[in-house]
Amino acid sequence: NTKAFIFDLDGVIVDTAKYHYLAWQKIAAELNIEFTHEHNELLKGVSRVRSLDIILELGKVTASQEDKDRWLVQKNEDYLSYLVDMDASEILPGVFEILKFLKENNQPIALGSASKNARPILEKTGLLSYFEAVVDGNDVTNAKPDPEVFLMAAKLLNITPENSIVFEDSVAGVQAANIGRMTSIGIGEASTLHEAKYIFKDFSEIETSFIANLIK
Ligand code: G16
Ligand code: MG
């Protein structure tokens, strides 16, 4: 049996959230906006443009489109500077083993991410060749919890949504998978991701027998 396995990127394959946080913190500091780790949770799975709006709302700051565009460029340049030295050592625990198991069992794999920097990250970590399809922030118009990104990925793999499995670390992403009638697997805390069909702390907790059962 063949299923589509769709992976989110940030928080699932790599922990780029820490770099997004550093880059946003610089912008927030410049604007005298307090931006804590808890605030950063609000930005997970959210687009770059929406992320800036959330930060400005936190600080009750209004800004011109010109200023916003400048901060968005500045944030991304800073974020990219943290990715320069990225390599396979930044792949989160257990991820590589599951990707390998899926490949060995001829299961199609896709990426479904909100990030516009997804491809270079997959290249740097040496994972790009595992992905038959990459759908990212450059391809979609509707952000998670809209299922567009995952539906597009399933379609590219030629698999129905009902036969698709999504790995997600964000609440919006789990909701997107559910709305798309896909099987949602939450990666993270059960208290946050309780809407997911299955929940694991990280990939090292996922046994290959669990994946084998999904393929059956
Ligand atoms: C990721 C992150 C978000 C980030 C978004 C856009 O989404 O979780 O925090 O704002 O990408 O990233 P970029 O600025 O690189 O386009 P995902 O869907 O991979 O978790
Ligand atoms: Mg994520």
UniProtKB/TrEMBL annotation:
Catalytic activity: beta-D-glucose 1-phosphate = beta-D-glucose 6-phosphate
Pfam families in the cross-refs: Hydrolase
Binding-site residues, Mg(2+): 8, 10, 168-169
Record GO biological process: carbohydrate metabolic process
EC number: 5.4.2.6
GO molecular function, one term: magnesium ion binding
Residue sites binding substrate per the record: 8-10, 24, 43-48, 51, 75, 113-117, 144
Cofactors required: Mg(2+)
Co-factor note (free text): Binds 2 magnesium ions per subunit.
Feature type site, description Important for catalytic activity and assists the phosphoryl transfer reaction to Asp8 by balancing charge and orienting the reacting groups: 113, 144
Keyword Metal-binding: yes
Enzyme class at the top of the EC tree: isomerase
Annotated keywords: Carbohydrate metabolism, Isomerase, Magnesium, Metal-binding, Phosphoprotein
Transcription regulation among keywords: no
Record InterPro entries: B-phosphoglucomutase_hydrolase, Beta-PGM, Beta-PGM-like, HAD-like_sf, HAD-SF_hydro_IA, HAD_sf, PGP-like_dom2
Active site: 8, 10
Family, similarity comment: Belongs to the HAD-like hydrolase superfamily. CbbY/CbbZ/Gph/YieH family.
Full protein name: Beta-phosphoglucomutase
Protein's organism: Flavobacterium petrolei
The encoding gene: pgmB
